[in-house]
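Tokens as discussed.
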């Protein structure tokens, strides 16, 4: 009898189009949009590494693949060996599994969507999957709007009965989190299914095929938060959750005598705070200049930004953005290299989503 390879590999999906995060993702990969100044994808790789995974294949698209490769490299920063798998077109999550087959071989694997963030590690789910001897293990989380998600119907014992992608009349509010464990059985399933109405090979259909053919599919509830960061509001919520949980006070930059920096503030080297108030939790990158401003809780400011005479709260400001003379900016997402300025006489609070390299005069 031949034994099946047992090493669990990682498959991270970092292709796709990222339509829902436009305009931010017109110019870049959505998996690299930062949360608390670190690309979302880095949290994914960290979680895989902490769960003892060594080999990770990353699915990339022709449009953003280069950028992902540049950011992640060979994976050594996480103690991983990373290989890249080019998906010419985003034809669905199950299509990504199909093209990864030569890389995955007969190994069991964890498929992790590169834009998903969860408020916990995954080591416990890995252990459960390995002990269960199941062909698929899915993570479920209650959501408010089940019509937007892949949804699982489970029986009283928590066994999965049926999966439906974005149901019109949802039978449950349990959404599939973008983290799945599979045995090599899934490779047969992805060859048996047909594209859905939206033209994609759906992973929910592949898992449904496993169920229909008497394979064991188990599920676990995720108790901590989960964010599919593909949308602006989720991105801001993720930013808040990460700043809330993980930011420690660390002041490497300079704070002048007329400024007050209170609470958990991470200020990067080469940055300067002049005549300003910063109230944590806040993360400010390197070489940032803040003058005559108030930076309120739950704000992330990327490297090289300049903020003058402005109030910024509960916002994500990407690198090299300039914000000047703004009465109040809140719940906003400001793209890289953008310039936001308020004209004379306007006194307003603004909520903005601004793409990269934009100029906005308010
Ligand atoms: P989705 O959010 O389902 O798809 P998308 O990236 O095309 O986004 P949008 O709806 O905003 O246009 O993708 C989930 C993750 O999987 C995301 O990180 C992109 C990745 N992905 C692939 O790598 N290949 C694919 O074929 C698809 C559909 C997604």
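Sequence:
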């Amino acid at each position: 009898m031949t034994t099946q390879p047992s090493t669990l590999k990682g498959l991270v999906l970092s292709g796709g189009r990222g339509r829902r995060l436009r305009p931010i993702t017109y110019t870049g990969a959505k998996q690299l949009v930062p949360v608390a100044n670190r690309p979302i994808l880095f949290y994914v790789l960290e979680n895989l590494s902490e769960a003892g995974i060594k080999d990770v294949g990353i699915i990339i698209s022709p449009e953003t693949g280069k950028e992902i490769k540049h950011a992640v490299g060979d994976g050594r920063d996480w103690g991983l060996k990373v290989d890249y798998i080019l998906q010419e077109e985003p034809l669905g999550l199950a299509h990504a599994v199909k093209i990864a087959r030569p890389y995955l071989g007969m190994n069991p694997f964890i498929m992790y969507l590169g834009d998903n963030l969860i408020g916990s590690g995954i080591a416990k789910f890995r252990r459960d999957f390995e002990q269960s001897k199941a062909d698929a293990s899915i993570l479920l989380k209650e959501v408010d709007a089940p019509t937007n998600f892949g949804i699982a119907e489970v029986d009283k014992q928590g066994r999965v009965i049926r999966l439906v992608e974005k149901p019109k009349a949802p039978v449950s509010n349990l959404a599939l989190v973008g983290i799945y464990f599979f045995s090599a059985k899934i490779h047969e399933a992805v060859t048996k299914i047909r594209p859905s109405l939206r033209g994609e090979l759906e992973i929910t259909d592949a898992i449904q095929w496993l169920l229909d053919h008497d394979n064991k599919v188990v599920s676990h509830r995720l108790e901590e938060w989960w964010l599919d960061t593909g949308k602006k509001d989720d991105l801001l919520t993720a930013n808040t959750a990460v700043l809330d949980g993980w930011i420690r006070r660390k002041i490497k930059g300079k704070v002048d005598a007329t400024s007050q920096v209170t609470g958990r503030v991470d200020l990067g080297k080469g940055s300067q705070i002049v005549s300003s108030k910063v109230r944590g939790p806040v993360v400010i990158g390197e070489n940032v200049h803040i003058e005559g401003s108030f930076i309120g809780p739950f704000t992330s400011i990327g490297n090289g930004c300049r903020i003058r005479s402005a109030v910024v709260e509960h916002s994500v400001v990407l690198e090299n953005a300039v914000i000047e003379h703004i009465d109040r900016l809140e719940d906003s997402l400001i793209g890289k290299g953008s310039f936001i300025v308020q004209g004379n006489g306007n006194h307003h609070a603004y909520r903005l989503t601004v793409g990269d390299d934009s100029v906005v005069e308010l």
